[in-house]
Structures are given as structure tokens and as C-alpha cells.
Design brief:
By secondary structure, the chain is mainly alpha-helical. The protein is built from one helix and no strands.
Amino acid sequence: MRRIRNLLKRSRGSQRGQTVTEYLMVISVLTIAVLFSAQASLALFGSAMDRLTSSLSTSLTQDGIRF
């Protein structure tokens, strides 16, 4: 009977550790996904700003406005 209780105690402790490890792994994967998506969004935003600047520059130059 004592052995069974000891086994049950050990299994409860390992489940708690396993749960914490699972949460940390999920948080890590989500963090990596957010960082990659933010980097991709910033690259797209920068590209859009470059095109906008180029278009405005061309438009203003064609109208005779120089800056």
C-alpha cells in the first residue's frame, strides 16, 4: 500500500512539471510566431512607404515642385 501511495505522489509531481513545460513550449512557439509575423509586416510596411515616397516624388517633380 505504501508503494502505491509513493507512486501516486511521484506521478502527481511529474504532471505538474509536465504542465508547466507544456505551457512554456506553447508560449515559446507563440512568441516566435508573433516575432516572425511582426518582422514580415514591418518589411511590407517599409516597402509600401518606399513606393509611396517614390510616387510622391515623381508626382511632385512632374508638377514642377522640387524639394
